[in-house]
Design a protein that fits this description.
The protein is mainly alpha-helical and about 160 residues long. It has five helices and no strands. Keywords: Cell membrane, Membrane, Transmembrane, Transmembrane helix.
Amino acid sequence: MEKAEDGQTEQIIEAGSKLDEQLDHKAFSVDYSLFEINKAFGPILFIGLFIGIVFFVSAGSFLYFRLFTDLDEEKRKFRSIAKIGLTETELKKVVNRQIALLFFSPIVVALVHGIVALTALSHLFDYNLTVESSLVLGSFAVIQIVYFLIVRFFYVKQVKRMVF
């Protein structure tokens, strides 16, 4: 079956609407049913995604400011350890692990929560959301990784400048 053009889709939806009105809400038109579902749940899903993005950005900001408020104490610790023989490579490794744990433990929990929630939503609507949920969760993970790399670069640079 070929995909209907926009004009044909509008006619199908209009015909489905008329059938739905005249036949006491018996689902005769799949296109009209999908149109109604998209019209009802589209804004809800958009608001959910928008709220998720706001929380994501907020969490990233909290992580960033937490790292840089503790920076003076971290510099003091690493200066003390450098006197014992900490090398620049070891410093990078320790700082990398420290920042990775701080950045990726929340995103792992969020991804698991998202997978469970989107699976439940998929079963609720009886519609396979695997591709959509993979795109959303994957994009959040990629953004978190990029943010981690940027913050790690500047944080390591700051610590190295004060320690070595």
